[in-house]
Design a protein that fits this description.
Length: 329
């Protein structure tokens, strides 16, 4: 199993219920690789390398604090595996520019990043347009079978499968498993302002590492509608439903049941309850996080062990790739 995060900020509740819990559960059954995707983060943050650098450790600590066990899972930094860059170059011959331009996730991201890539994406870089190719290399360098991801990443896995099939056909070999995506079963959490996703730039996220006071302030300030009853109805009342959803995930309950149980609470009573329960739920995470922050060399050691292990696996993959491509001089 391989999955990863771009180090562009600390991880938030959306990551936690969406993917962290899921990957922690999987590490008992799969040989697991968790990548801190710094090279991919640079494809749209090439102008702020310091930000990416700082968030590498943040993301690593968030993963470990959430229960990623360095004895079971391998945590590593993408840029420390040069074979990924090498494989990306070879894969780039197998993908057309038009296919990349049509990738729905890439398209949406280019549209979101007008400041960087121009009003109509006319200034999009070769690197950004090609990041799905690089992601195919991320996945296949360890010959992953399964890739747990959110829905927005499905086009990337599909692209990876196409590259793998084309590679095998073109060079008459069978090096890679055909990777499968695994969607987490928890529904998507939206931002506290009711806008699409939780994100740092929108200032609408609860970070796992936030302290209890910050969490209470943020939940108290979460946008709600002018209704007076607690209800789970994401289509018509997205903001309050999002809070009900978070509550239900903490308590492992069905959101509809939560809503009917709490329907006589006022919004502010409910928010306070939610904030307190969330703080209680995140207590073990936060204790671990504080401990890790006080010993960064321990986190770096884990990343270094990951680097060594993945380098070995990656070099074995590339040995087979170079042979298949007749460049094993
Ligand atoms: N694109 C992913 C994201 O934005 C991060 C990522 C990079 C990834 N490489 C990966 C995910 C490989 C799964 C597999 O969240």
């Amino acid at each position: 199993m391989l999955t990863g995060d771009r180090p562009t900020g600390p991880l938030h509740l959306g990551h936690y219920f969406g993917s962290l819990q899921n990957r922690v559960a999987m590490q008992d059954d799969f040989e697991s690789y968790i990548m801190v995707a710094d090279v991919q983060a640079l494809t749209d943050n090439f102008h702020q390398p310091e930000m990416v650098r700082q968030n590498v450790l943040e993301v690593a600590m968030d993963n470990i604090s959430a229960g990623m066990d360095p004895k079971k899972s391998t945590l590593f930094i993408q840029s420390q595996i040069p074979q990924i860059a090498e494989l990306t170059v070879f894969y780039s011959n197998l993908v057309t520019v038009n296919t990349l331009k049509r990738n729905p996730t890439v398209k949406a991201e280019i549209a979101e990043k007008r400041e960087l890539f121009g009003q109509d994406g006319e200034s999009v870089t070769y690197g950004f347009l090609g990041y799905p190719v690089s992601q195919a290399a991320d996945i296949t360098i360890v010959r992953a079978h399964i890739v747990p991801v959110g829905e927005d990443q499905l086009p990337m896995i599909e692209q990876t499968r196409e590259i793998v099939e084309r590679f095998h056909r073109m060079y008459q070999c069978n090096i890679f498993p055909l990777p499968q995506s695994k969607l987490s079963n928890s529904p998507r959490i939206i931002g506290l302002d009711g806008s699409g996703k939780m994100s740092k730039s929108l200032n609408n996220a609860v970070y796992l590492k936030d302290n209890p006071e910050e969490t209470i302030e943020k939940i108290k300030g979460a946008k709600t509608d002018s209704g007076t009853t607690i209800e789970f109805n994401p289509k018509e009342r997205p903001e309050i439903s999002n809070l009900v959803l978070i509550y239900s995930l903490i308590h492992n309950q069905n959101p509809k049941d939560v809503a009917s149980e709490l329907k006589h609470n006022t919004y502010s009573e409910f928010k306070l309850k939610l904030a307190h329960d969330l703080n209680r739920h995140l207590m073990p995470f936060r204790a671990k996080r504080l401990e890790l922050e006080s010993k960064p060399h321990y986190v770096k050691e884990i990343l270094d062990m990951g680097r060594v292990k993945v380098l070995e696996k990656a070099e074995e993959t590339m040995r087979q790739v170079r042979e298949a491509m007749k460049i094993n001089y």
